[in-house]
Amino acid sequence: AQSVTQLDSQVPVFEEAPVELRCNYSSSVSVYLFWYVQYPNQGLQLLLKYLSGSTLVKGINGFEAEFNKSQTSFHLRKPSVHISDTAEYFCAVRTQGGSEKLVFGKGTKLTVNP
Amino acid sequence: GAVVSQHPSRVICKSGTSVKIECRSLDFQATTMFWYRQFPKQSLMLMATSNEGSKATYEQGVEKDKFLINHASLTLSTLTVTSAHPEDSSFYICSAPLWAGGEETQYFGPGTRLLVL
Question: Is the predicted pLDDT of residue B86 greater than 80, yes or no?
Answer without folding.
Answer: yes
